[in-house]
Amino acid sequence: MTKNAEQILEIVTNSKEHLSAEQIFMRMKETTKGVALATVYNNLSYLYKEGLIRKISVEGYPDRYDNIRRHDHLVCRCCGKLSDIQLEDLTELLQKQVGGAMLSYDLKINYICEDCKRKRDSESEGIMHYED
Amino acid sequence: MTKNAEQILEIVTNSKEHLSAEQIFMRMKETTKGVALATVYNNLSYLYKEGLIRKISVEGYPDRYDNIRRHDHLVCRCCGKLSDIQLEDLTELLQKQVGGAMLSYDLKINYICEDCKRKRDSESEGIMHYED
DNA sequence: GAAATAAATTAGAATTATTCCAATTCTTAT
DNA sequence: ATAAGAATTGGAATAATTCTAATTTATTTC
Predict the structure, then answer these.
(1) pTM for this structure?
(2) SS3 of B132, please?
(3) Does A110 contact B108 at a Cβ distance shorter than 8 Å?
(4) Does 3.40.50.1360 match the CATH number of domain B70-132?
(5) Nearest residue, CB atoms, A111 vs list B45, B101, B109
(6) Which end of chain B is more exposed for a tag (fewer CB within 10 A), N or C?
């Protein structure tokens, strides 16, 4: 594990947000001079393959990276908003079914967030036809 | 729901594979003349937001689309290979925890496929140092 | 059923994300 | 210190996706 990889792992692990490669790159630049975006991508890909970080893809956003502490995600199907949610650990339950090949699992719960719900409602009002 | 949207939904729903926007576009062209890739993207995004299809993002591939019949996915962390797997339905279990806002869930099981395991092994052999 | 309005689609440009590659720098072991 | 290997850089190339303005198609309304 190189110094850069280590720093990237640290940034991802300590961030409360879900950072994109670009964002991680910007944070790195704050402390280290002369890092290349390609290096960030290289190392993210390495860290991901090693199972040290996870990757989350959501409609309308670039891929983002997250720590591997056990937690799940709530994703708004409409605007892509992503939040953490702590659900029951299903590792055992799933391992029983999948077998030893399983390394980990990622669970996303789809929903429609309040903002989008509101927006939908007001839109459908908008196209209402008031006959009189 | 427009005719194009309907056709795209049908292609995604009936396909055994996990198709990308580009692939769906190519299938559409077989039957319909003068469809634009942008239309495919528009409609995929619409269908996704309506919850009529799901979207799967995997390392190293463009986003792909899938039907919403209850099933889960097995993803090789190394090469991105994606396969279907039918695990126990967790809807009730999760709904109890998440509440009524939940629309559906997506579960990905991470593992390392046989090919990648083999490749890893032979690589680590390669860098072995035989002292004598 | 023609005109007016709205919605969907097109083609292609623009943008963004990501990968690739050749040249350079840094490490490590000798 | 030097050679060999690995990691990184910077920028170009590619690929995916979005955007936009113009056009077509569908839907209302009279």
Answers:
(1) 0.88
(2) coil
(3) no
(4) no
(5) B101
(6) C
